[in-house]
Structures are given as C-alpha cells and as structure tokens.
Please model this.
Amino acid sequence: MALWLSLSAGKFRRRPSHVAFLYFLSASPSSSFPENPNNHVSNIKNLPVTNSRSAPPWRALDGLCCCNPSLASFSSLSGKAGDGKDRRSEEGRASPPLVVASSWVHIYLPEFAQPYALLARLDKPIGTWLLAWPCMWSMTMAANPGEFPNLKMLALFGCGAVLLRGAGCTINDLLDRDIDIKVERTKSRPIASGILTPFQGLSFLGLQLLLGLGILLQLNNYSRILGASSLLLVFSYPLMKRLTFWPQAYLGLTFNWGALLGWAAIKESLDLAIVLPLYFSGVFWTLVYDTVYAHQDKEDDLKVGVKSTALRFQNSTKGWIGGFGVACMSCLTISGYNAELGACFSLLL
Model:
C-alpha cells in the first residue's frame, strides 16, 4: 500500500491537481493512469477529465454529480448552456457536457412504464418507508415476548405500503393537476405535464387498489374493515390543503393508520391504551417532517391559494416543530409503558 501511494504521488506531480484528485478516487494498485489527461479516468464511465487550462478545477467533478434529468439543458455538445451563453474554453474548444444521472426508473423500466412508476413515486421510496414504519412498529409491539414479528405480515404490509402510497399519490395528482402545473416543484409530474391523461391515471389507480384489495383479503376480518376505512382518509387528503392550514395533520392521520392496522392484523383487536398513543406519536412525527417539507412550496402555495402549516406557522416554525417532537416522544413513551416494554424501550427512544 505504501509503495502504491508513493507511485501515485509521483504521478500526481505530473498531472493537474484536479485530475490527480480524481485519479486518487478511482485508482487501485493494479490500475494505471491514462497517458492523456483528456482521456476518461479509468473505471469511471463517461466522466470527462478536462485540461487544467480549459476549465476550472471544479469542472472535473461535474460527472460525479447525480443531477436531475431536467438539468440536461444546461449543457450540450455545442458547449452552450441552457441560458444560451457560450461555455467555450479559452482555447476555443467546447467544454464537455455535464454527465446526467437518471433514477432507476429511467434506467431499468421500459419506456411505457416509466410515467406510471413516476406517478406512483417509485423513484422516491422515502414516502413508502414513512407509510410502512408505523405498521412495522405496531406489529413488533404486538408480537409475543421473545419472538420476532410475523415475517409474512411484514412482507404483506411492505407491499401494501408501496401500493397504498402509489394510490395516494395518484389520487393527489388527479385532483391537483390544475395546481401542480403552476408549482415549480410539481409541474413536471406525469399528469400535470400531460404525459399521462387523467383517464390513464384513473385506470392506474384502479389497478393499484385492486392489488391492494388482494393484500387486504389476506388479513383477518377485523383488519379488513379497519383497512378499508382508511380509504376515506386517502381520498380526502388532497382536498385538505384547500380547506385548512393543517393538511399536514390530516396527512399524519392518513399515513400512520398502519399503527392501528398492524396491531389488529396480529391480535384481531385493538388495545387502545397501546395503539392510540403510538398512532398519535406518528401524527406528531408527520407534522414535524411535512411542515419542514412544506416550506419549500410557500411562495407557490401563496400564488395558487392553497394552505399549509408552513404558511400558518411562518417564523415560529421552529417552536412548533420542537413541540411536535416532544409530543411524539411522549406518546411513544406512553405506548411503550402501557405495552410493558420496560425501561430499555424508553432509553432507546
């Protein structure tokens, strides 16, 4: 290793500093540095390395960035940026184009399926996790002491989270398509941008609900009724931003329904002393992260006339989300205490 570092250091002295840095990132003891510094760095596909006189050092890192596909307009083979200005080097040569990284949806799915995957937000799985976690918490607490949660139920609820989150996003995009087109962050969504028609979105929604029904039928009768009742929240949530400054609270009621359903799927009943504090801890948790998220749309929300907790709280947001965080932890503590989980549960919160 020491010999390799020494040899590498010798090569660094013969190369521009930013090229040497990229070589350090990509090289291995068995790799060799390309003789021509304008060649691509070994083991990094499509990453152009520029001459130190033709571009500033930070341009050598362009290819490492995971850019949004919409940023592709900022570069072209002609060397012109998206604003029309010429980005040619001092020597008159065009600068190499930026390397744009797409999501797995664009890489692996056939073209006809990509708009539907984007409509269901399959490229942004964090929403699915936020929907699934309350289910997992509840099923874990419902498991017998000393036993792992039911793996079959965990798998069913995981698949259900993907489908229900996708269905919720589809409903949201169908109802908000006239608003989404006016908001910078959402105007490229498949329905708002016209890639999919409302009828196609509605058909896709039906497919997701049908698959979700197949999962719901795997549960006990008590859970089937409880699960079906959540659809009222799912379908009405997109309307809340038009009616109240608290749509994030309504989202919390919707997203954390799994805290009730997970327990019912295991116990075929509800222990309200345990599941209600768990449920409301999730609601407060949602108020924390979705209020922060809503701040990025404040200006657009004012323009189109929709409401949010970000607009309600304004400069007092930090105090509010601090209070929600305390309430979340308090409810979790109460739920764990009522479930007789012991002091370790509280210490690990």
About this structure: Residues 1-101 form one domain. Residues 35 and 232 are 65 Å apart (CA to CA). The longest helix spans residues 151-175. DSSP finds 16 helices and no strands in the chain.
